[in-house]
Amino acid sequence: MLLPITHETADLIEVVRITDPIRHFGADDLTGDEVTPWEAPQVDQVLALVGDLPDGEMRRCFSPGWGIRVHGATGLLFQLAFCFHCHGIRLWGPAVPDGQQGLHSFDADSAPAQELLRRFRAAAERPA
Questions:
Q1: Chain mean position to CA 120
Q2: How many angstroms separate the CA atoms of 79 and 23, rounded?
Q3: In Å, what is the CA distance from 64 to each residue of 68, 86, 95?
Q4: Phi and psi of 79, rounded to 5°?
Q5: What's the pLDDT band for 8 if we cut at 50, 70, 90?
Q6: Which of 27, 29, 102, 127 sits in a 20 to 30 Å window from 76, CA-based?
Q7: Distance, CA of 70 to CA of 40 (rounded, Å)
Q8: Residue 128 has what pLDDT?
């Protein structure tokens, strides 16, 4: 998946377990239960996984279960909502060019996608 160039300035990722997936089709913000923050070196690792996601065939449900808010030194850069059922990702935020905002497809069965999902689940299982 092609990430906005601003991903290179990211220094914090907030992992979000999405509790109301229907609203994320066009919402301005990513809401749900904040699971954990990730800092270096996890930020680079996670964004590398997202960048390595191969294209896939998107289905129609777009009911995302996981999301991330990506921050840089000046604040929120962009947000991603992941639907591992329909193989769709929504990308949006203040540092995303108009041509990149919106829904993108990915192969949810690919190795990078499965590793990303494993990391989301592992983060949610850690005690607070």
A1: 10
A2: 14
A3: 11, 9, 21
A4: -130, 150
A5: very high
A6: 127
A7: 12
A8: 55
The alpha-helical segments, DSSP class H, found in 10-125 are 42-51, 111-125
Half-sphere exposure of 37 (CA within 13 A, CB side): 6
Torsion of CA 16, 19, 20, 26, to 10 degrees: 10
Integer CA distances (angstroms), 85 to 13, 66, 105, 109, in order: 23, 11, 11, 10
**pTM of the predicted model as reported, rounded to 2 decimal places:** 0.92
Task: Please state whether the peptide bond connecting residue 21 to the residue before it is cis, i.e. omega within 30 degrees of 0.
Answer: no
Rounded distance between C-alpha atoms, residue 33 and residue 53, angstroms:
24
Q: Which pLDDT score is estimated for 88?
A: 94
